[in-house]
Write a structure and sequence with these properties.
Elements (H helix, E strand, L loop, with lengths): L6 H26 L3 H8 L1 H25 L24 H6 L2 E2 L2 E10 L5 E10 L9 E5 L4 E4 L4 H7 L1 E2 L3
């Protein structure tokens, strides 16, 4: 008697091995999809948050430039006022996109502005909140005329301004 498996028995065994391998791969992919690093790599939360922080820094820079060139007005309390009049060579103007109010998965807004007795704006607050919370970002970010950046883990702009948790450098 022969103890070697027939061709049909070998095919059935390899079929089970293939299904087992496919099942193992699917389970691994499912588990990986719930890890933060996989989520960031494929859904861009960290990238959007990083862009929001960089954008707030850019807005601070534009506010300082505006205040220097508009000594009689001080800071701008509306983002579109920060647009420069210089002509751009490329079709896509990053600053115009940023100052439109929504950029790279975040919504940007000027919070409060304080005006002195002379009518000059001496302070401002700006917030950046996720446009689609949980998908484009988790945290809210904010800043003021001092240029320091703050964050709120819950994604709330008003909470960011109220609690002022400093963003580590």
């Amino acid at each position: 008697m022969s103890t070697t498996p027939s061709g049909a028995e070998r095919r059935d065994g390899s079929r089970w091995k293939s299904w087992g391998l496919v099942s193992a791969i699917l389970i691994i992919l499912f588990v990986l999809s719930w890890t933060p690093s996989f989520h960031d790599a494929h859904f861009g939360v960290a990238r959007h948050e990083s862009n929001a922080v960089g954008s707030l820094s850019k807005i601070n820079e534009l506010e300082r430039q505006y205040a220097r060139t508009h000594v009689d007005k001080g800071f701008a309390c509306k983002l579109p006022l920060l647009l420069t009049t210089e002509k751009k060579n490329d079709e896509y103007d990053l600053v115009a996109s940023l100052l439109s109010g929504e950029h790279a998965g975040y919504k940007f807004a000027v919070g409060t502005c304080a005006v002195n007795a002379s009518g000059i704006t001496v302070s401002y607050e700006i917030t950046a909140v996720p446009a689609a919370p949980g998908r484009t970002g988790i945290r809210a970010f904010c800043t003021d005329q001092a240029g320091q950046l703050f964050y709120d883990e819950g994604g709330s702009g008003p909470q960011c301004l109220a609690l002022r948790h400093a963003l580590p450098n």
